[in-house]
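Much of our argument rests on the idea that a fold can be written as discrete symbols. Part of our work consisted of pairing the sequence of a single chain with a tokenised description of its backbone. We regard such an encoding as a compact summary of how the chain folds. The amino acid sequence and the backbone structure tokens for this protein are reproduced below.
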Amino acid sequence: MERGLLELHLHAVSFLFIERELFTSKTLVKLTLSTGYDFEAERVFLPALKSLYLLIDSGIDYDNHCRLLDGCPALEELFIRDADHDCPPCCGSVVKSASIKRLVVLVNLPNKRDSHDYAYFEAPSLVYLDYSSYVYETYQIVGLDSLVEARLSLKIWDYYDYNYDYEYDDESGDYYFSSSDDEGRSYCYSYVDDERKEPIFGDVTNLVAGITNITTLHLAPDSLEAFYFCCESMPVFNKLLNLFIESNKDKGWQGMPLLLKSCPILHTLVFKGLVHRVTNKCGDACACIPKKEKRENEKKNRKIVEKQLSCLWTCQVKVLEISKYDGSFQELKQMGHLLGKLGCLESVKVGVHADNNTEFLQANLLALPRLSSKCNNIQFS
């Protein structure tokens, strides 16, 4: 340290007390702490540190975590991995820094639901956020007004024995409906046994409301479900220009209609795959809405009535990009749905897998009718 060390990567497999000189370096610019257990630091002052990587396999306690961040006044980049251990989340639950501009947080503790009660983020200089975690019970977001780009992977807890309101979808013969109690908590009921289910844990309302100044948003497949089930109200993204959606055949698009309605100046819409879990909550965003059915349950004398939501007719998207396109019937139907309802489209780009019959796929897509008169061509790659 006396020679002016600029970069240090430290890994420990057991309890470690770090010498004070390490955390009072005037020259250190990049520091990685990768631990299999706890570590302590009596005093921290790293005035030159720009990048900090916390790869925690066991857990750094709250006091040491706060002491570490407070002692880095010039920190610009913070990467936190709080995963694969048996301790409650710590580093990924609280981030407070006046200087950081880029923040990457990964919290993966699927067996610690009860410890995900509160998350706090305060970073007035932050311009980029990459956040992946199971949803917390509540979030407090302070001063993210400078944020420009966000990547969210918000996972719903899998403690439940039902399929999260996948009512009336194509993979289940059972039917469900939702209700609320006097405190506003949502429940799902099954037509099979009418048993009240456990409320879905977590609320991302404050998290979503805290990032409304962004111009670019990337959503992992789980996030649309979290928006639908764990967000009490969708804020308006008045500055959002670019929206990237990653799809997965096991995850639904329930949050898509309300999200698109909340992006009044959206310019570019990008899908990484179009195949997703079909539910009756995708609304007008999806061409795969299950056919209207009305079935009376003789015992309960109830009917299922499908309510369609419209979100594409008023969407201002001018650029539509699709990657991982295989040309399946569901994908072609979805493309026809998008082209036939997005009235402001000017450019369409489709990425086709090289091992597919490219000419056949292109011919099918080019034959689809388009609502927008300005959409004269489809580019393939």
User: Anything to note?
Assistant: DSSP finds six helices and 20 strands in the chain. The CA atoms of residues 97 and 123 lie 5 Å apart. The helical segments are 62-70, 205-209, 221-229, 256-261, 329-341, 358-366.
